[in-house]
Specification:
Blueprint (H helix, E strand, L loop, with lengths): L1 H17 L24 E11 L3 E6 L2 E15 L14 E7 L6 E7 L2
Parallel strand pairs: 3-5
Antiparallel strand pairs: 1-2, 1-4, 2-3, 4-5
Length: 115
Amino acid sequence: MKRIIIAFVCVMIAPLAFAQTKKTKVQQTAATQPAATTETATSNTAGTVRKYEPGKTMMIDSTQGPLSFGLGANAQIVNNAGNAVTSPLKPGQTVRVYYTGTNQNRMVERVVVED
C-alpha cells in the first residue's frame, strides 16, 4: 500500500516540475530619446518698491511704469553683497528684480536691495 501511495504522489508532482515558466531576457534595442528641456530667459528691471506682500506679490515703480510680480517659494531677497535680507521690503526701497515670464505671469527669482 505504501508503494502505491508513493507512486501516486510522484505521478501528481511530476507535472508540476514540467509546468515551470520559462525566464526570457528581453533586450531593449531602441535608442532612448533625451528628455526635452526648456530654458526660461531671466529678465531684470530696477525700480522702487510700491507694495510688498511676503511670499505672495510685489509691485515696483520702474522706468516702464508700475510692474507687478509673483513671489514663489524659491524667490531670494538679498543685498548688494549677496547676503540674505531678513526684514520685509518697505515702500520706497530701491531694488533690482530678476524675474521670468512676461506681463501678468512675471515670477521673481531674486530681488537685490540696492539701498
